[in-house]
């Protein structure tokens, strides 16, 4: 990763992804997340890898998760630049206006909460 990518939020390096994230790279992955929401809450973090604000919010959110007591939540991550059609599908299916960064909380197949930018917090999920 170049110096400018580190400062301005370039694509994460392979080792940058935290182990608690389930990656959404296909409609099948999204469907798995929705099915998982019938067992426990699901949080989908939509991230723009080219946005410094999104990168900052992501890092702060990941720190919250790491410092939490391990609630029964499944965390999903969507690189919305690489998988924009899936991001659009989420917005359409859940009737939530697309924003970035964005956190969408799903329970029993329905969006029960969402937030963007500095309003993203673990408290939205628990």
TrEMBL record:
InterPro entries: BrxC, Thioredoxin-like_sf. SUPFAM superfamilies: Thioredoxin-like (SSF52833). It comes from the Bacteria. Pfam families: BrxC. This is Bacillithiol system redox-active protein YtxJ. It comes from Chryseobacterium terrae. The lineage of its organism: Bacteria, Pseudomonadati, Bacteroidota, Flavobacteriia, Flavobacteriales.
């Amino acid at each position: 990763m170049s110096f400018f990518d580190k400062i301005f939020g370039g694509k994460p390096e392979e080792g940058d992804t935290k182990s608690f994230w389930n990656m959404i790279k296909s409609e099948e992955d999204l469907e798995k997340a929705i099915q998982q929401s019938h067992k426990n809450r699901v949080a989908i973090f939509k991230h723009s890898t080219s946005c410094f604000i999104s990168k900052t919010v992501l890092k702060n959110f990941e720190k919250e998760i790491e410092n939490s007591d391990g609630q029964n939540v499944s965390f999903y991550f969507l690189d919305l630049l690489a998988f924009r059609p899936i991001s659009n599908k989420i917005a359409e299916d859940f009737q939530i206006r697309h924003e970035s960064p964005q956190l969408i909380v799903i329970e029993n197949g329905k969006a029960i909460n969402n937030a963007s930018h500095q309003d993203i917090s673990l408290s939205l999920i628990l």
